[in-house]
């Protein structure tokens, strides 16, 4: 008889006792009979097995991998070209001059169009269509200028003369980009010191997705209206002080522990921004000021928010707590994004050189980022740590920010938080 795997299950029962030899029966022979009965049980079907198998959720399948330590800045410096940390003041001022010319040219041409008789003869919808491309172009030029002011805030326009950094920052940020330079530099520095820390990071708040039901009603309302906020989020950040504190009115956590002298110095930048906006409004009138200055400013703010958000959000990104945070771990959670060759260049490699920037934010000027990033990639590969460097091609950046912000907002999953 052929035994198949389906006949392996049996239940045996003993029907009679077994007669064993006792000392008094040592010489007696006794026949013992053991009767065994068996019952064949059919093998379970797939449906039965499936019903008995416990269902596994995503949390059951997720295994938190061990946290690896990235190389320290001293080791990374050895991977980079020797001139990476050379800050050349004339080169910095050259780029500042180019962007200043771009802003003056685009905004000036936009003003000429808006104040022309032909423009005012058009119906309102035609006026909007006529100036929209110029507003986008002017806003992008302002964004490029903002990147120069960003370098000034880190002291990488000039290494030898701090006054040059301050002057460039006040012109680029406070005046042209209506971003109070010193208050912004203060909060931005705190972002760099605590990048990807769950509680201490600046610029973006982090909310645990699994705790969304317990959030404050105002935060829930902000999440509900998130898709309407993209054009004005920079305004909310600067003027309303959400989430870090005000950059125009000085309140919130970013000002804790700062002296009145520091606040007075910051107030100079705020007055430059307010005076510039007031002078333009008074000269141009509210309508032209809005069309020529504020709509491009919103375009600039959109660029700034988009770039910053995508640099610090990725599917496999991690956040750290006090128990697990190190500066290097936070820096390597930054994502380099490739928006395209010319967009990267005109934006001074703010997007595709951001990992290097976060590792050495007071040491590497924007015109050294491209070569340093290439060397970092090669060095990490040679060290067997190439997977720790994050880089994503994002040519569809406008669609990507809309999708990511709609899907994720400022939520992160609990499994992305490294607590121990």
What does the model show?
- The protein has 420 residues and is mainly alpha-helical.
- It folds into two domains: 49 residues, no CATH class; 346 residues, no CATH class.
- The protein is built from 18 helices and eight strands.
- The N terminus is likely disordered.
Tally of individual helices: 18
What kind of sheet is the major sheet? 2 strands, antiparallel
**Low-confidence runs of at least 5 consecutive residues:** 1-30, 59-63
String of helices and strands? EEHHHHHHHHEHHHHHEHEHHHEHEE
Question: How many strands in all?
Answer: 8
N-C termini distance: 60 Å
Write out the strand line-up for the largest beta sheet, numbering strands in chain order.
1-2
User: Gyration radius, to the nearest Å?
Assistant: 33 Å
Portion of residues within helices: 40-55%
Mean pLDDT, rounded to whole units?
Answer: 88
What global shape is seen?
Answer: globular
Into how many domains do the coordinates divide? 2
Short description:
The chain contains 18 helices and eight strands.
Helices, strands, pairings?
Blueprint: E1 10-14, E2 36-40, H1 46-52, H2 58-61, H3 73-77, H4 89-114, H5 117-121, H6 124-153, H7 162-176, H8 181-193, E3 207-208, H9 217-224, H10 226-229, H11 233-240, H12 260-284, H13 286-311, E4 319-320, H14 327-331, E5 335-338, H15 341-346, H16 354-359, H17 369-382, E6 390-393, H18 397-408, E7 411-412, E8 417-418
């Amino acid at each position: 008889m052929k035994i198949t795997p389906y006949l392996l299950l049996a239940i045996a029962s003993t029907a009679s006792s077994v007669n064993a030899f006792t000392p008094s029966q040592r010489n007696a022979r006794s026949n013992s009979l053991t009767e065994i009965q068996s019952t064949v049980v059919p093998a379970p079907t797939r449906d039965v097995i499936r019903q008995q198998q416990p269902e596994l959720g995503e949390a059951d399948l997720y295994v938190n991998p061990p946290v690896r330590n990235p190389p320290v800045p001293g080791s990374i410096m050895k991977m980079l070209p020797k001139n990476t940390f050379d800050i050349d003041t004339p080169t910095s001022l050259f780029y500042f001059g180019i962007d200043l010319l771009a802003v003056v040219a685009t905004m000036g041409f936009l003003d000429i169009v808006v104040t022309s008789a032909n423009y005012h003869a058009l119906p309102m919808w035609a006026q909007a269509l006529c100036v929209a491309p110029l507003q986008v172009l002017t806003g992008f030029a302002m964004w490029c200028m903002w990147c120069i002011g960003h370098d000034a805030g880190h002291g990488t326009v000039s290494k030898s003369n701090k006054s040059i950094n301050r002057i460039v920052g006040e012109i680029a940020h406070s005046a042209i980009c209506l971003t109070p330079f010193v208050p912004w530099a203060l909060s931005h520095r705190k972002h760099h010191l605590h990048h990807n820390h769950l509680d201490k990071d600046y610029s973006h708040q982090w909310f645990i997705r699994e705790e969304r039901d317990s959030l404050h009603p105002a935060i829930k309302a902000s999440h509900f209206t998130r898709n309407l906020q993209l054009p004005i989020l920079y305004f909310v950040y600067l003027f309303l002080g959400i989430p870090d504190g005000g950059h125009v009115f000085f309140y919130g956590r970013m000002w804790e522990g700062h002296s009145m002298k520091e606040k007075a110095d910051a107030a100079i930048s705020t007055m430059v921004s307010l005076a510039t906006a007031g002078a333009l409004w008074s000269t141009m009138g509210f309508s032209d000021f809005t069309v020529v200055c504020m709509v491009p400013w919103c375009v600039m703010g959109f660029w700034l928010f988009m770039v910053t958000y995508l640099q610090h959000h990725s599917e496999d990104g991690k956040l750290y707590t006090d128990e697990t945070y190190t500066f290097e771990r936070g820096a390597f959670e930054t994502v380099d994004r490739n928006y395209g060759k010319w967009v990267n260049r005109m934006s001074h490699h703010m997007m595709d050189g951001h990992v290097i920037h976060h590792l050495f934010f007071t040491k590497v000027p924007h015109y050294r980022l491209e070569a340093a990033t290439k060397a970092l990639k090669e060095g990490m590969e040679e060290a067997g740590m190439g997977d720790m460097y994050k880089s994503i091609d994002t040519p569809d950046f406008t669609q990507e920010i809309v999708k990511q912000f709609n899907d994720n907002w400022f939520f992160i999953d609990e499994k992305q938080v490294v607590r121990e």
